[in-house]
Automatic annotation (TrEMBL):
Upper lineage: Archaea, Methanobacteriati, Methanobacteriota, Stenosarchaea group, Halobacteria
InterPro entries (alphabetical): Arginosuc_syn_C, Arginosuc_syn_N, Arginosuc_synth, Arginosuc_synth_CS, Arginosuc_synth_type_1_subfam, AS_cat/multimer_dom_body, Rossmann-like_a/b/a_fold
Descriptive protein name: Argininosuccinate synthase
Catalytic reaction annotation: L-citrulline + L-aspartate + ATP = 2-(N(omega)-L-arginino)succinate + AMP + diphosphate + H(+)
Pathway: Amino-acid biosynthesis; L-arginine biosynthesis; L-arginine from L-ornithine and carbamoyl phosphate: step 2/3
A Pfam family: Arginosuc_syn_C
Native species: Halomarina rubra
Domain of life: Archaea
Region (Disordered): 389-410
Residues holding L-aspartate: 118, 122-123
Matches recorded under PANTHER family: ARGININOSUCCINATE SYNTHASE (PTHR11587:SF2)
Family matches, as HAMAP family: Arg_succ_synth_type1
């Protein structure tokens, strides 16, 4: 008889640690293979996962998906992607992680894939949307067994499992290249003001010296900082450091999760904020007014699917067709000013600018055969319907007031 095997999304935190014995005891699997996917978490997280796996006697695979994830983050820049103001770090990483785990599971001849998500969050949905494309069984022990954190802590103690309260301290943290998110414990009270020490990527805003940084874009993708070409991972890491020193890219928000729950979330995303700000500034120079207006709808749809973990949806492909066409001209540079804990565009340049300095200038008479006086006819027509409609309303009101009873009902 062959042994049954399950691949587990493994981080070494409390949830995934208790999943290891549970998959054997409760689900009857002979072997658990842990899979950790590198999407830019700090090195300590891998060390912790490694130690925990060793102590549990679990064989683990580490898959490096940083480059692939960084490419997806830059696609998100082309789509000016955010969800309720947060640049989607966790959401964008999940399909990448899920696919990497599925690939290992198939390679290793596993019968099932498992995650340690609860039944309350978004990640269960994002993982399973990818996994259910395969024939493997999908297992969610925490959700299916209805486990609480307290129960898990007790179970871990009874079974002598290597956990130290899980995930390093009070907060539940999810980190990748694009963002660091902090939630749970005292932060669950929306009115609790977070202490400075929840932040690791961003220094206290407003304390750094003002700095200018030039970002170069090619077809909507950022490719260089201060004229120096960089691959996507290096560019994002470099900007996280730089913008983080200025305290740029903090979000404290109420987030509407897919299942309808509202949760209080805190995020840090310095590079994402800088790149999204710069990209939008360049689009402002290059795209026509109607392209910008329509693209807002396209970007919002792209962001919604990304939040749902469905970047592989046919709709996203179709939206990207539109995005790609507009981005053919989004090539040029943007200068960002980091000042007072903010970053804002202070210069932009592109050979594709939809801009005529002489047309917009106060100093020129005639441009492209159009003189100032040519606007007179347009100015006469402007607001014509509003004048007609409001005039008719006013006339009716006056006629009613002129009636013998002064227009009163009875
Ligand atoms: N709520 C966020 C999302 O669904 C991310 C939550 C990240 N998890 C955490 N433990 N901080 O995108």
């Amino acid at each position: 008889m062959s042994t049954s095997k399950v691949a587990l999304a493994f981080s070494g935190g409390l949830d995934t640690t208790v999943c290891v014995p549970l998959l054997k005891e409760e689900y009857g699997y002979d072997e658990v293979v842990g899979v950790t996917v590198d999407v830019g978490q700090p090195a300590e997280e891998f060390d912790e996962a490694d130690e925990t796996a060793d102590a549990l006697g679990v064989e683990t695979h580490v898959v490096d998906a940083k480059a692939e994830f960084a490419d997806l983050c830059l696609d998100a820049v082309r789509a000016n992607a955010d969800y309720q103001g947060y640049p989607l770090g966790t959401a964008l990483a999940r399909p990448v992680i899920a696919q990497a785990i599925l690939d290992v599971a198939v390679d290793e001849g596993c019968d099932a894939v498992a995650h340690g998500c609860t039944g309350k969050g978004n990640d269960q949905l994002r993982f399973e949307a990818v996994w259910r494309t395969s024939d493997l069984e999908v297992i969610a022990p925490i959700r299916e067994l209805g486990l609480t954190r307290d129960w898990e802590v007790e179970y871990a103690a009874e079974h002598d499992l290597p956990v130290d309260g899980g995930n390093g301290g009070d907060w539940s943290i999810d980190t990748n290249l694009w963002s660091r998110s902090v939630e749970g414990d005292a932060l669950e009270d929306p009115n609790y003001v977070p202490p400075e020490d929840i932040y690791e990527w961003t220094d206290t805003p407003g304390e750094a010296e003002t700095e200018l940084v030039e970002i170069t874009f090619e077809e909507g993708y950022p490719v260089a900082l201060e004229g120096e070409q960089m691959d996507a991972v290096t560019l994002v890491e470099t900007l996280n450091d730089l913008a983080g020193e200025h305290g740029v890219g903090r979000t404290d928000m109420m987030e509407d999760r897919m299942l309808g729950l509202k949760v209080r979330e805190n995020y840090e995303h310095p590079a994402a904020t800088a790149l999204l700000t710069a990209h939008e500034a360049l689009e402002g120079l290059v795209l026509t007014a109607e392209e910008r207006q329509f693209k807002q709808q396209v970007d919002a749809q792209w962001s919604q699917k990304a939040y749902e973990g469905l970047v592989m949806a046919p709709l996203v492909d179709a939206l990207e067709g539109f995005i790609a066409t507009t981005q053919e001209r989004v090539t040029g540079t943007v200068t960002l000013k980091f000042e007072g804990g903010q970053c804002r565009p202070v210069g932009r340049d592109s050979e594709f600018a939809t801009y005529s300095e002489s047309a917009a200038s106060f100093d020129t008479e005639t441009v492209d055969g159009i003189a100032q006086e040519d606007a007179t006819g347009v100015a006469k027509y402007h607001g014509f319907q509003t004048r007609l409609a409001n005039g008719a309303k006013e006339q009716t009101k006056q006629a009613t007031e002129a009636l013998p009873d002064g227009g009163s009902e009875q």
